[in-house]
Design goal:
Blueprint lengths: L1 H16 L11 H27 L4 H4 L14 H7 L2 H34 L5 H12 L7 H10 L6 H5 L6 H11 L5 H8 L4 H9 L4 H16 L3 H6 L8 H5 L10 H21 L1 H13 L2
Helix pairs in contact: 4-15, 5-9, 5-12, 6-9, 9-12, 9-16, 10-11, 12-15, 12-16
Amino acid sequence: MAQVSMQSQIDKRALQTHPEPRREHRLNWWQIVIYLGLGIFTVLSVGPLVFTFISSFKTMHDVLAFPPSLLPNPWIWSNYAEILSNSLFLRWILNALIYSSGAMVLNVIFSAMAGYALGRMNFPGRGFIFTITLAVMMIPSAITLIPKFLVVNSLHLNNTYFALILPAMAQPFSVFIMVQFMKVLPKELEESARIDGASRFRTFFQVILPLVKPALTAVAILTFQGAWNDFQWPLVAMGTQDMYTLPLGLFYFKSAHYTEYNLLLAGSMFNTIPILFLFFLFQRHFMGGALGSSVKG
């Protein structure tokens, strides 16, 4: 026993004196190609945004200079001060916020309810209704522009917040996402809730909705982004400058003979930064909802 213990101590000392060499992780050629492609894609994607942000601190002369310069010379803050001093600009931000928030809340509620009905309930014509919902997704928005305006105009809602929010309160793609998530949930959840005496609405709000938070987050982000960046429908539905949304209001800095590009670039940052902040804040839930809706079926 003494010889065995002495031999083990000698082996330990030998290992400490001569440690095993570390294996170096070498990249394969295909990994290098993938990383190179991802790097190029990142530069092409983020580069224009960074260049726009830097150019928002340039003078009008520097913005139009050719060849363009990367850094402003000099750096100026007057672009942001000038657009913020315009009372209409702050009103445009408020209008865009009301439009985006209202459309987001209503679309999440009604899409979740429609997804629950089409994905969890059995009633005649369910498959036909879901097929029609998918078919509506294939119709370009420009085709429905005039019918939506005629409906809004007949209700005397044009140039109001209702004209913006009501057409966006139930979107087919949002319904599709909710259906894909809800129809794979175990039916035992509803049966257990029904045995405990829960009603249909209580089962929906307290049992089903907490299980589809990734889908709700994805729908909320996509709806807010779509309404925040919407230009076409506010252009048709809104008739006065005080009711413009931010993307439509930015067009105010462009005229037939002269465009204030320095102010346009500064104003576009207010249109971009909130969406980036919202996406990175809920990125994990958004990716889970988007990927889940594509693999579940």
